[in-house]
Amino acid sequence: MVIAIDGPAASGKGTLARRIAAHLGRPHLDTGLLYRAVALALLDRGLPLTDSAGAARIAEALDVATLEEDRLRSREIGEAASLVSVHPGVRGALLDLQRRFAAQPGGAVLDGRDIGTVVCPEAEVKIYVTASPEERARRRFRELAGRGEPTTFDDILADILRRDTRDSERSAAPMRPAADARHLDTTSLDADAAFARALDMLPAGVA
Ligand SMILES: Nc1ncnc2c1ncn2[C@@H]1O[C@H](COP(=O)(O)OP(=O)(O)OP(=O)(O)O)[C@@H](O)[C@H]1O
Ligand SMILES: Nc1ccn([C@@H]2O[C@H](COP(=O)(O)O)[C@@H](O)[C@H]2O)c(=O)n1
Hints:
Layout: E1 2-6, H1 13-24, E2 28-30, H2 32-44, H3 52-60, H4 69-72, H5 75-84, H6 88-102, E3 108-112, H7 115-119, E4 125-130, H8 133-146, H9 153-169, E5 182-185, H10 191-200
Parallel strand pairs: 1-3, 1-4, 2-3, 4-5
The structure holds adenosine-5'-triphosphate and the ligand Nc1ccn([C@@H]2O[C@H](COP(=O)(O)O)[C@@H](O)[C@H]2O)c(=O)n1.
C-alpha cells in the first residue's frame, strides 16, 4: 500500500509520515530532502540555483542512501530547495527515483508536495496536512532554535509565506491537494492527536 502525505512547509507532514511508516513497518521517504540535496550540491559547487541544466544533472545522479540529513535541514537550504524545485528537469529526474521507492513490495510512505497528484496518483491513501502559517512558523522557529540556528519568528513566517506562494504557483507540479485527498488541519492538534486522526484515515484493518 502506498501512502501519500502532502502539505506546505512545517505543517507536520514529515513527522506524521515517519510515524505512520514506523507504525506499519513500511519504509518512508521525505521527498523534500531530495530537493534540498540538489540545492546543497549546487551551492557546494558554486553554481547558481537558476542553473537548471546543472541542477538536473545533480538530480539524475542523486543517491537516496547518501542523504546527509543534518546539513539539509537548515533554513537556507529549505529556501534554496524551493528555488531549484521549479526546474522541470529536476522534477523529472527525481520522479523515477520516487516512483521506484514507492514501488517496493508492500508499499511505502512518501511525503512532499506532489506525491498524491504527480508522483503516486494511484496511492491508496492520500492525506493533505495543513496548519495556519503562524502555527507552522512557531513550530519551525522552535525546531531551528533547538538546533542552535539563529533566526526570528518573523523571518520564519516570511519564509513560509514566500515558499507557500512559490510552491503553489510554479507551473511544474504545483503544491495542491489531490482531488481524492483527505484533509488534516493540525493547527490545534499536537503530534499525537494528528497521528490518531491520520490512523482513522487508513483503510479498515490496516492500522
Ligand atoms: N502536530 C504538531 N504539533 C506541534 N508540533 C509539530 C506537530 N507536527 C510536527 N511538529 C513539529 O513541527 C516541526 C515541523 O514538522 P515537520 O518537519 O514534520 O514538518 P514538515 O511539514 O515535514 O516540514 P518541511 O516541509 O519543511 O519538511 C518539527 O519540529 C516537528 O517536531
Ligand atoms: N515533493 C516535493 C517535496 C519538496 N519540494 C520542494 O522542496 C522544498 C523543501 O521541501 P521540505 O518538505 O523539506 O520543506 C519545498 O519548499 C518545495 O519547493 C517539492 O517541490 N516537491
